[in-house]
Backbone:
C-alpha cells in the first residue's frame, strides 16, 4: 500500500465520490437512450458492455465500455490530483465497488471488468496496458468475455511486483478476488461448457 498521506475526512470524501461515480449504470443509460430496451431482460441481464453487445448494437456496446472504463479512470485521476496516491487507490476501489453494488439498482450491478481496466490504466499505465492486452488476446482466442476477464485479472498483482509498482499489489489482489467472485456463475457455465460466446444475441 502507498503511504497514507490523507486525512480521514478526505479519505471518506474520496470513497463516497468514487462510489457514486462508479455506481452510474452507463449500460442501462445507453440502452435506454438508444431504444434497446431494459438490459435486465436481455441475455445475462448484466449491465455491462458484453451484454449490451447481445442487443446487436456495436456502438452502444462500445459507448458502454468507454463510459464504464472512463468512470474508473476519472475517479483515480481526480483523487490523485487532489490528494495523492493513497486517495487514487481509494477512489479506484470505491468506483469499482460502486459498479458491482450500485445503490440505484438495489446493489445488483455489473461484473466490473471495464471499470477495473480503466482504473488500472489511470493508476499505473504499463500494467493497465498489459491487462488490456491480456484480455484482448484471451477474448480473441476463447471468444468468451468472462474467461478473458478472469485470465486478465489474475496475474495483475504479479505484474505490479515485477513492473515496479509494489504499492498496488494489495489493491490488485482485492480486485482480482472480486472479479473472480463476480464471475462465479460464469465459471460454472465455463466448466459446463455452456458459457455464451462474445456477440451472441440474447
Residues:
Amino acid at each position: 500500500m502507498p503511504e497514507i498521506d490523507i486525512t480521514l475526512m478526505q479519505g471518506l470524501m474520496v470513497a463516497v465520490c468514487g462510489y457514486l461515480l462508479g455506481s452510474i449504470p452507463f449500460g442501462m443509460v445507453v440502452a435506454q437512450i438508444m431504444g434497446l430496451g431494459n438490459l435486465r431482460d436481455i441475455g445475462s441481464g448484466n449491465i455491462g458492455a458484453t451484454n449490451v453487445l447481445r442487443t446487436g448494437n456495436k456502438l452502444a456496446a462500445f459507448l458502454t465500455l468507454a463510459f464504464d472504463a472512463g468512470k474508473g479512470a476519472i475517479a483515480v485521476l481526480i483523487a490523485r490530483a487532489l490528494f495523492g496516491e493513497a486517495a487514487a487507490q481509494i477512489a479506484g476501489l470505491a468506483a469499482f465497488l460502486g459498479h458491482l453494488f450500485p445503490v440505484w439498482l438495489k446493489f445488483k450491478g455489473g461484473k466490473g471488468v471495464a471499470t477495473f481496466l480503466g482504473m488500472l490504466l489511470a493508476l499505473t499505465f504499463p500494467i493497465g496496458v498489459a491487462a488490456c492486452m491480456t484480455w484482448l488476446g484471451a477474448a480473441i482466442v476463447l471468444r468468451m468475455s468472462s474467461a478473458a476477464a478472469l485470465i486478465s485479472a489474475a496475474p495483475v498483482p504479479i505484474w505490479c511486483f515485477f513492473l515496479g509498482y509494489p504499492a498496488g499489489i494489495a489493491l490488485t489482489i482485492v480486485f482480482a478476488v472480486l472479479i473472480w467472485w463476480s464471475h462465479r456463475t460464469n465459471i460454472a457455465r465455463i466448466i459446463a461448457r455452456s458459457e455464451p460466446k462474445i456477440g451472441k444475441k440474447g
In short: The chain has one domain: 8-191. Residues 154 and 176 are 6 Å apart (CA to CA). The chain is about 70% helix and 0% strand. The chain has a mean pLDDT of 90.
